[in-house]
């Protein structure tokens, strides 16, 4: 074998050994990074779900809405004694965190177990802004009924415990999103304080009942 | 896409049904334990409903034929470009009483929110895109109630009256629009859900047949002095 070929073979062997070591090191680093990311995510969720308690909290009978044990297609109120703040935004955080923690029977949850409330703001006009973690959307069972029940449980829990709230805006990780999990429109505000009603049918030819500005017949196109 | 033209033309009877099998592409929708995918199942329902409606002489369009995933606005644009059309969005949920079927239209608060956002007097003659459903809501609710009545007779556990929900897809449809949700992918036997297809198609066919005269009457100009 010529000398130059021996050199080339030796250099290739060194390169192969070096690559193998590098690959092993890279894999170890990747595993470490993944562990750290998981740790920091767990830490963030722990911090977000830490009970919000203030010295002035008063033990109050709070009304929380989860799925009904008798009819899982409907919501039912559950009375729980909770230390609640008199400050409306803080009080809203406390009841929503309890709602997210879920009922004793986990089958009656309306919100994903890994979702957390990041922040809650209450504006002077009664507009509430609830900012949830990504899991509210990504872990939500897809469907009109499940998404409707999730939002309704938040609305009704706020209505029962924080009367200052008039309407609700839901954000996901600080951002407005199109839908909760593919169905429910989150671009607008949900009214708080008016129970949802079944769709009422209007007899043919009848004048519009609820919206004076809405004509009863479609515009000709 | 921000607005729709309001052009004047003669009355058009109901002749087109746009079926919207929800999800598609990478968006599989609700998923069952046995590998069941909502996006596949609703496509199967759409084919069966289409056949039933075509037998009645209606032209049926689908927002997707295969595994595409058009956006909400692309789906709405398909029906908004038609005259004499209605829109039916098909879903299978993750929850709910297995075997029950619910029909939805959008709630009043979304309409009033849209109406309050509209410019006063609407000087442009255009309907804002997000307000597209407003003029059609009474017809949508009539269609929803007719269909829910049929479904309550066909599928045990289905409610007697249609529901309202802030369904994103319906908001931008400028035609009578409803969403149907079958419960649910949690059904242990996939064939149970597949077997619901013919019954679902028959209910939609009957409801659309009952709705046609209502729609056609709504297209007639109101008698003088009534407006």
In short:
The complex is a heterodimer of chains A (221) and B (227). Chain A is α+β, with helices and mostly antiparallel strands. Chain A is built from four helices and six strands; from the N terminus they run αββαββααββ.
Overall strand count of chain B: 8
Mean pLDDT of chain B: 88
Strand percentage of chain A: 15-25%
CATH class of chain B: Alpha Beta
In total, the number of domains of chain B comes to 1
Instruction: Kindly state the percentage of residues in helix of chain A.
Output: 25-40%
**Unreliable segments of 5+ consecutive residues of chain B:** none
* DSSP helical segment count of chain B: 6
| Quaternary organisation of the protein chains | heterodimer
Main interface by residue count: A-B, 46 and 71 residues
CATH superfamily of chain B: Zn-dependent exopeptidases
How would you describe the overall organization of this protein?
Chain A is α+β, with helices and mostly antiparallel strands and 221 residues long. Chain A has a domain at 58-191. Chain A has helices at 3-48, 88-101, 135-138, 144-161, and strands at residues 58-67, 75-84, 117-122, 127-132, 167-172, 190-191. In chain A, the strands form 2 sheets. A 4-stranded mixed β-sheet of chain A has the order 3-4-5-6. Chain A has a two-stranded antiparallel ribbon with strand order 1-2. In chain A, strand 3 (117-122) and strand 4 (127-132) form a beta hairpin. In chain A, helix 2 (88-101) packs across helix 4. Chain A starts with a helix and ends in a 30-residue tail after the last strand. Chain B has 227 residues and is α/β, with parallel strands linked by helices. Chain B has one domain: Zn-dependent exopeptidases (Aminopeptidase), CATH 3.40.630.40. In chain B, 39% of the residues lie in helices and 16% in strands. Chain B is built from 6 helices and 8 strands. Chain B has helices at 38-55, 72-80, 108-117, 137-154, 168-171, 190-219; strands spanning 3-5, 16-21, 59-62, 85-92, 101-105, 126-128, 163-164, 177-182. In chain B, the strands form 2 sheets. Chain B has a 6-stranded mixed β-sheet, with helices on both faces. A two-stranded antiparallel ribbon of chain B has the order 1-6. In chain B, helix 1 (38-55) packs across helix 6 (190-219) and helix 4 runs antiparallel to helix 6. The longest helix of chain B has 30 residues, at 190-219. Chain B is globular and about 55 Å long. The mean pLDDT of chain B is 88. At the A-B interface, helix 4 and strand 6 of A face strand 5, helix 3, helix 4, strand 7 and helix 5 of B.
């Amino acid at each position: 074998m010529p000398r130059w070929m021996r050199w080339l073979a030796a250099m290739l062997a060194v390169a192969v050994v070096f690559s193998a070591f590098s690959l092993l090191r890279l894999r170890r680093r990747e595993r470490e990074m993944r562990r750290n990311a998981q740790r920091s995510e767990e830490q963030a969720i722990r911090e977000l779900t830490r009970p919000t308690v203030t010295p002035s909290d008063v033990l109050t009978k709070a009304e929380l809405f989860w799925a009904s044990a008798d009819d899982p297609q409907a919501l039912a109120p559950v009375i729980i004694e909770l230390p609640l703040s008199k400050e409306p935004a803080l009080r809203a955080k406390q009841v929503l965190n309890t709602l997210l923690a879920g009922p004793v029977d986990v089958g009656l949850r309306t919100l994903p177990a890994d979702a957390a409330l990041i922040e809650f703001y209450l504006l002077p006009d009664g507009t509430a802004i609830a900012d949830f973690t990504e899991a509210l959307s990504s872990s939500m069972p897809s469907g009109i009924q499940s998404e409707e029940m999730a939002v309704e449980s938040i609305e009704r829990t706020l209505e029962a415990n924080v009367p200052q709230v008039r309407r609700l805006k839901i954000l996901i990780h600080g951002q407005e999103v199109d839908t909760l999990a593919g169905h429910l429109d989150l671009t607008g505000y949900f009214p708080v304080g008016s129970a949802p009603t079944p769709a009422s049918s209007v007899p043919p030819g009848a004048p519009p009942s609820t919206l004076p500005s809405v004509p009863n017949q479609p515009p000709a196109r | 896409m921000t607005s729709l033209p309001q052009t004047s033309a003669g009355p058009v009877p109901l002749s087109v049904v746009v079926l919207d099998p929800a999800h598609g592409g990478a968006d599989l929708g609700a998923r069952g334990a046995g590998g069941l995918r909502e996006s596949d199942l609703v496509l199967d329902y759409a084919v069966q409903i289409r056949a039933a409606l075509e037998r009645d002489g209606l032209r049926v369009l689908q927002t997707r034929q295969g595994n595409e995933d058009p956006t909400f606005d692309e789906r709405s644009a398909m029906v908004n470009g038609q005259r004499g059309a209605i829109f039916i969005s098909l879903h299978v949920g993750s929850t709910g009483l297995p075997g029950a079927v619910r029909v939805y239209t959008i709630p009043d608060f979304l309409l009033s929110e849209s109406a309050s956002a509209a410019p006063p007097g609407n000087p442009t003659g255009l309907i804002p895109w997000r307000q597209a459903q407003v003029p059609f809501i009474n017809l949508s609710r009539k269609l929803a109630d007719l269909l829910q009545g049929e479904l309550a007779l066909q599928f045990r556990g289905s409610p007697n009256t249609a529901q309202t929900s802030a369904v994103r897809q319906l908001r931008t449809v400028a035609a009578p629009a409803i969403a149907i949700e079958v419960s649910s992918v949690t059904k242990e036997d996939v064939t149970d859900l597949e077997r619901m297809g013919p019954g679902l198609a028959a209910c939609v066919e009957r409801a659309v047949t009952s709705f046609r005269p209502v729609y056609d009457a709504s297209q007639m100009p109101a008698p003088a002095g009534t407006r």
